Amino acid sequence: MRIRLQGAGKGLAKLGSRARQPTERLKSILPGRAPIGTGALSAPEVRARNSRLKSLVDELEESSRPETNPTGAGLNEVFDNVGAPKQDHPIPSKSWSRGEKLREGILVDNGIPLVSPILARDACKCAECIDPSDRQRNFSYADIPTDIGFSRVTPVENSGETIVSWRNDALPHSAGKSTILDKETISSLRKPFRNPHWYLYSLAQKLWDAESFTRDSNRFDFNEYMSSDDALAEALHLLWRDGLVFVDGVPESEASVSQIVTRIGPLMNTFYGPTWDVRSVPNAKNVAYTAKYLGFHMDLLYMREPPAFQFLHCIHNESVGGESRFADTFKAVDVLYSQDPGKVRDLMTYPVRYEYDNDGYFYSDLKPTILKRQELNVPNRPTHNASHPHVMSDVGRVYWSPPFVGNIHPKLEHHELARFVSASHAFSQILEQPQMVVEEKMDSGTCVIFDNLRVVHARNAFDLNSGRRWLRGAYLARQDFVSKASSMIDRMPANIRFYTLDGQEP
């Protein structure tokens, strides 16, 4: 389901709010202690904090004595021994899928568990299982008995929560301890991405070209970027959506680029160092350190995990020429699919080996031109304005850096190589079309930030004798960006289109 939020207000409070907020009842049971989603409670705790559950928990505690627990029972036998619980939630329709039943908070249907008890036990986040201070586990999933079972599953009327007592429970639970699972936790048990921070991937990406790139709104003042959390959140949102922003008014200092990066996360260190200079030098070890034309490329694709974001601060630029050029490879993939879907499939199939072998350093890695998002083990993302949204939702990264290719795949037959070269040529031609390119003459005091695994960059040749040209660069890893951006999602602008992870309205 598509949802469009209107207005210029800040925040995405609706987005995943149910998953982030514990119910009022759960707050009253364990104020300040129970992490969001689940809580395992002993009978004394429940009696002291919620008298409404007293009789239920007493009954469950009595039926969960250790001597009644089965031993040596296989998983099927444990499932067969589960009694049909009292249910106060809607009686499931026979046509409901297992996922639909779980979304309604139904853990057991007519005596049949909808998930393995191992999965439910692993989801417990009570104070015994998860340390309230460091949020680390006090148990290992490897120690959950394989014959663990549901002794009794009791939905609590009008609360959306379910009390689970166990057969053959795992430590550190004390004997007879019951677990309370809320509706959101039960609905997420079979989801691969449970944490609310994954909702960042529900924010749509926007494809752009020279005409549609919002050059004015994608610019920030350095002081505002450094001092305002709202400005930072907007910059993160635009980087996540478009992959390209500019920061102006940056002080003429070698330390400035580090300050811009560390506002988001730690510097990513490489063999170039935590930061590095882009200046023309004799006998350059990298084409970037010359004055000649540098075609579209991405940095460090010869590394197994290349930098996700690149920062380039123009400290001085008095030279003639040297304009920076940027293009959206995701837009190019969408255009190429309109022309010939088979060429997109070829670029997803045939890998390229990237290599760096110079000055005592050797790096090498094999990558396809288009990497599917499912291979990154992250959620698919909606695309704001794609001609082929279902195709683009599975495009995770694009790898394109012809200057640093070691070789194309040596074991392909001629007809396969011909298809791959043809697809690569078509992709390159799309990138080079003038209407695809955003060109910027970097002024002194401007820093560009771009997604290194989506946005290709290039540089026109410049006259070495016309004046100084000095840029200082740095990198940021993807996980560090995601960590910061997901923590600021409530500050991001609300007038964007997004999906929830399961396609449901939040």
UniProtKB/TrEMBL annotation:
Residues 1-24, 57-97 are annotated as: Disordered. Gene3D superfamilies: 3.30.2020.30, Clavaminate synthase-like (3.60.130.10). The keyword Transferase does not apply. Its cofactor is Fe(2+). GO terms for biological process: carnitine biosynthetic process. GO terms for cellular component: mitochondrion. Keywords: Dioxygenase, Iron, Metal-binding, Oxidoreductase. It comes from the Eukaryota. Residues 86-97 have a biased composition (Basic and acidic residues). InterPro entries: AlphaKG_dependent_hydroxylases, GBBH-like_N_sf, TauD-like_sf, TauD/TfdA-like. SUPFAM superfamilies: Clavaminate synthase-like. Residues 216-475 form the TauD/TfdA-like domain. One of its GO terms (molecular function) is dioxygenase activity. The keyword Oxidoreductase applies. Belongs to the gamma-BBH/TMLD family. This is TauD/TfdA-like domain-containing protein. It comes from Fonsecaea multimorphosa CBS 102226. The lineage of its organism: Eukaryota, Fungi, Dikarya, Ascomycota, Pezizomycotina.
